[in-house]
Amino acid sequence: MSRYDLAAKIATLDPQADAIQICHLLAGYEFPWDITRALELALLRTFCIPSVAALLDRTGEFHHHTQKRYDDTGIIVSELFKWGYEDPRGQAFLQRMNAIHQHFPIRNDDYLYVLSTFIYEPIRWCNRFGWRALSPVETHGIFHFWQAVGRQMGIKHIPDDYAEFEAYNQAYEQTHFHYTPANQRVADATRAMMVNWFPLPLRGMVNFGIPALLDPALLTALGWQAAPTVISRIATTALQQRSRLLRQLPPREVADFFVDQTIHSYPNGFDIADIGPPTMLDALNQKGRPNSN
């Protein structure tokens, strides 16, 4: 295979009819690391919406079970990318997510915004730091994938147009991004979790560098200080150098989905019945334990 064979294959697909296949190839083969990082950024952006942060702060999941909450979200998203929302396994995880969400009073507008971050943050990240830019087929495939997921979540008023939904994403941030202590508490807990992924000698440097790629509006809404300009330049340059290096490497032939890796909260593997807030697991599983991973 040549480096661009998968890109050429995706170019022959239909963005709407083949959205599942497009996202499978992007998340598992073309940009697995980049999409995971972009979705982490999307997570931080949702904390900038006070109504979202207040709910997360009130449940305590990002304070008491930060890693599990992160991992459960990553697992659900990864299972959807790996299997699609039409496959029985993908459907099971989508239904699990819906069952969890039903326990909380989440506004439709907040659902819409969070959904939009899952579309546009990976696109923006890959176009900025990926080893190649995404094509219109790929960007619209991502749009149609999450549009279909959103409809199965019962989200109302999802735009039918790519540009219209992106405009909604940008307008929602301009209107709703502002600082609250809850924003910062949830974000600080997540930042501490990310820092703890690294060996002890590196944690101070990682903590210092986390804001390096974040925009001023996000930093203000989280109550975080910007990284020094030199640190931001180093981080940007390092990611751009990484993209140039990846262009020279052979294409990935073995998938690298998030669920294919060792997951912090589930080092021995997971069952779909493990997914969800610990205090809700009995209620979520009362209808019977689903099939194992």
Automatic annotation (TrEMBL):
Domain of life: Bacteria
The ER-bound oxygenase mpaB/mpaB'/Rubber oxygenase catalytic domain, residue ranges: 44-230
InterPro entries: MPAB (IPR046366), MPAB/Lcp_cat_dom (IPR018713)
Gene Ontology MF terms: oxidoreductase activity
Record Pfam families: MPAB_Lcp_cat
Annotated protein name in UniProt: DUF2236 domain-containing protein
Organism: Romeriopsis navalis LEGE 11480
Lineage of producing organism: Bacteria, Bacillati, Cyanobacteriota, Cyanophyceae, Leptolyngbyales
